[in-house]
Structure formats: C-alpha cells, structure tokens
Amino acid sequence: MNRKTLVLPAVIGLLTPVLAACGATDSAGDSGDAIVVGTTDRFTASKDAPAPVDPAYAYDVGTWNILRQTVQTLLVQPRGDGEPEPEAASSCSFTDSGNERYACTLRSGLKFTDGSPVTAEDVKFSIDRARSLKADSGVFALLSTIDLVETKGDSEVIFHLNSPDATLPYKLSTPVAGIVNPADYDKGRLRDGFAVDGSGPYTLDAEVENNELVRAVFTKNPHYKGQLDPKNDKVELRSFTGADAMGTALKDGDIDLMTRTMTPEQITELSDSTDSDIDVVESAGLEIRYLAFNTDAAPVESTAVRRAMAGVIDRGELVAKVYGSQAEPLYSLVPAGITGHSNSFFDKYGDPDVTKAKSTLEAAGVTTPVKLTLHYTTDHYGSATKKEFELLKKQLDGSGLFDVTIKGTPWSTFRPAEQEGEYAVYGMGWFPDFPDADNYLAPFLDKDNFLGSPYDNREIRSKLIPESRRAADRLTASESLTGIQDIVADDVPIIPLWQGKQYVAARDDVTGTEYALNAASTLQLWELGRGRGN
C-alpha cells in the first residue's frame, strides 16, 4: 500500500480527521495479541524520585500517560478539543454563580481492580492526600484553589474553593486528582516503585530493570465502569533508549506504533515515503519549548541580560534548521490555538536585533561578553535538543554579547538539579495538563510553581491569575491573560522558543491512530485496535 500521512486539524475540530486511517474495522482484540507501543520516555525510580508513578508525585507527560490508563478521574478530557466530560462521575457542575462550589456524583458500581467499591470517601482521600503531601514535583499546585473536600453519602463529592476557579473541571481530569485505593496508598507518604492501583480502564504489570521501567503491560480491567470504550484487551508500552532504536523496531514489526519522541529526520522520512506499510498521523500540537531562568542567579539576575537574550535569539532560524515544518516559532508562553494567546515577545522585541540588545546591556552597566552556561536534558525531549542548543549557542555567541557554554545532562539528574536552583539558564518543555491558557501561565508564575522559580510578580499572582479564573467563558478572561503575557515579556523569567506538532507512526493494521493523542497530548491507548490493512 501507499503510506498515508493523516493530518488532523488544529485544536478545534480534532474529533474529525481529514483522512480516515488505514484499517477499516474495529475488531478490538480479535488476534489476542497485545498492541505494542514504543516511546523514548524513560521511567526511573531514584533516590531523588522514588515514587515516579504515584499520582501525588508524577508530573510529566510520560508518567501521566501511564496513570491515565490505570487511575480513574472524576472527569476526563475528550478525544479532541472541548470541556471535560464525566468519567468516574455521572455528573459534575458548579452549584453557585461564583464558581466557588463544585459538586460531583459518582457513577454507580465503580470498583477498584481488587473488586472493592469506589466511594466518595476514596475520592476525598485521594485528593486530600495529594494536597497534603505537597510533593516536590509541584503537581499539588494544580489543586491549590481547593479549600475543602466534603462528602455526602457514598456518592457525592463537593469541592469548596478558596477563590473562584472556572478551570477546576480541567484540573479534576488530570492524574493528580486520580482516585487511588486507600488500601494500597499511605496518606502520609508517597508510594515508591511502579505499582499502580486504581479503577481505570486497564491494570498495569510493570517490568523493571535496574530501577527503570522498561515494559508496561496494560490489560483491560474487568471491573472498569466509565465512559471510555477500550478497543483492545491488552497494550504493551516499551521504553527505548533512543528514537533510532524505536524506529527500527517499528520497521521490523517488533512494535505496532511509536509516538514521542521521534526525530525530525524520522518524521520527514516516513512522511515522504510512497511505499510503506507505516502510516503517519500529524496533528496540531500544544507542546512548547522554552528557556527558563533562576532569576536569583548570576548573571541572569539582571533583567537586562534576560531581555538582551530575548532580543537576540532567532526563533525562525531555530525552527527552520532544527525542526523544519514540524514546529513554529513561539512568542508567548501561551501557544497559538489557545484562547488568550498573544505574541507579547514579538510585540516587545520584534525581529532579532543585536544593536538594540547591546544598548539594553550598556544602559544597565553590564560588561560584555556575558558568560553563560545553558543546560539541557539529553534524554527527555528527543535527540534534536542537542542540535537546538548548539544553534542557540551559535546565535548568542554570534551577537558578540555573550560567551555561552552548553551542557547536557540525563533527565534523572537534570530535573532535581533544576528544582534545587543549580542552573541559572536551562531548557524545558511543556505538554499541557489541560488545553487552557491558565495551564501555560500559573504552573510557571504562581506560588509553588512547577519550576521552583524565585520569580514573583505580585500583579500576576494576586490580581491577574485569580481574575482570569473567575471567567467561565474563557474569551472574557483574555484581557487578564494578555496582561500576564505582557509582564512576562517585560520581566523575562522565561523565553518561549517554539511550539510543536505531534505525531504518531503506526503499522497499517492498527486502527484508532487518529485518536491516539488528544489535544492535550494525552496518550489514549484505549482507542487503539486492530483491523484489515488497506
């Protein structure tokens, strides 16, 4: 057959693919074989992070993709764009006009994988546990607007908020709000290792070598009750050390599908091929990449240094030479396609301008060249990251204003060091917890932020973020959201670089690939099945 590239529309309308995937039937599990999915995500239990898949700790796209298959939430994000829909709940809604009281009623007959019933008290236990443990990953901050969780009987859960938060339904659809079995999770400590016990569509069997998860087998949960409809009986997730090995496994038929992170070269090769039994699904992406700063560290404690960097970096060249058509320049923390997006950095700095950047440094009395070390992770965002940072170094050095060293570190070391404030400048990526502008701003700028950043702007934290959350209609929040983005462009605690598209490559007998990733980059393994190849 001729390989087809399936292009899904941007954010709005993701539910309707432009071209149907190969494989016309939905014969889930007919062969009895597991659908094997490859990923370059690494899952490591270490001294710094002994509980990587505990919902109260996990806070990256890889571990969340494990939890979304196994731990049920009150609501779930839909296949494409749209508001969260009831999952463990049969219904949820705000019960006041001020978005400060939110009530959910559980579905009847919910059970954990051991067969014990799921009750409202289990929901309260799970969410209170995450809030009280306050894991250093910062994931608990997603629940920061919850003041009190109340239960009524076995099926009603009521959330009383400390401030209005129209985004709460989205937050309750994320794994930090996942319902766990109190019999297996201690309220006072994280659960070490890779065991997961919930009430989601699958159970998990983890194969671990040297404290690293190398294979995760998801088996359809016979006790599951919810709105999801698994199209298979078993899916196996294999972790590869690199994209090349993963790509070889797909071509050889050892795996059926691969997703993050493919290299730009792999995507181009597969997309350009005219004779292959592998399909590529391309969809609009909400992933972003950015440079972050420890604003207390020399020499970037100087706002002038950060502004000069923002004025010199050429995003267009960065995208063109490293990622090609697979990414777009980004001029704000909020990506294009999300309500409230603005091009604040372009509005302030325009095209790269060395003369203007030099004047900024001279006016602040900064001696040039400014010596910097840019840190990046070697194994978390794909192999192209090194090339990206080599080009950033070339741009900054080429201005004559900076003298840059770059240093790559494995994620298991990089992330703890970043959290401890050891890096002055470092590269990070972000896959949204939910597709709303709030989730591209608050996790980086609010109290208890994901980065552990010392940057603290009172207008953002005390006025603009709370103000934006009052608006149930997100269009009406745009003024507050734009205000936040303008302040970030002025203070530069972060420099946005680019936003990327998302891709899945699969053998042509795998169905449901157009729904394998939703708008928030959630891996939806329950959508995958087997059918006839074209």
Automatic annotation (TrEMBL):
<dbReference type="GO" id="GO:1904680">
    <property type="term" value="F:peptide transmembrane transporter activity"/>
</dbReference>
<feature type="signal peptide">
    <location>
        <begin position="1"/>
        <end position="20"/>
    </location>
</feature>
<dbReference type="Pfam" id="PF00496">
    <property type="entry name" value="SBP_bac_5"/>
</dbReference>
<dbReference type="InterPro" id="IPR039424">
    <property type="entry name" value="SBP_5"/>
</dbReference>
<dbReference type="InterPro" id="IPR000914">
    <property type="entry name" value="SBP_5_dom"/>
</dbReference>
<keyword id="KW-0813">Transport</keyword>
<dbReference type="GO" id="GO:0015833">
    <property type="term" value="P:peptide transport"/>
</dbReference>
<keyword id="KW-0732">Signal</keyword>
<comment type="similarity">
    <text>Belongs to the bacterial solute-binding protein 5 family.</text>
</comment>
<feature type="domain" description="Solute-binding protein family 5">
    <location>
        <begin position="83"/>
        <end position="449"/>
    </location>
</feature>
<dbReference type="InterPro" id="IPR030678">
    <property type="entry name" value="Peptide/Ni-bd"/>
</dbReference>
<dbReference type="GO" id="GO:0043190">
    <property type="term" value="C:ATP-binding cassette (ABC) transporter complex"/>
</dbReference>
<dbReference type="GO" id="GO:0030313">
    <property type="term" value="C:cell envelope"/>
</dbReference>
<protein>
    <submittedName>
        <fullName>Peptide-binding protein</fullName>
    </submittedName>
</protein>
<dbReference type="GO" id="GO:0042597">
    <property type="term" value="C:periplasmic space"/>
</dbReference>
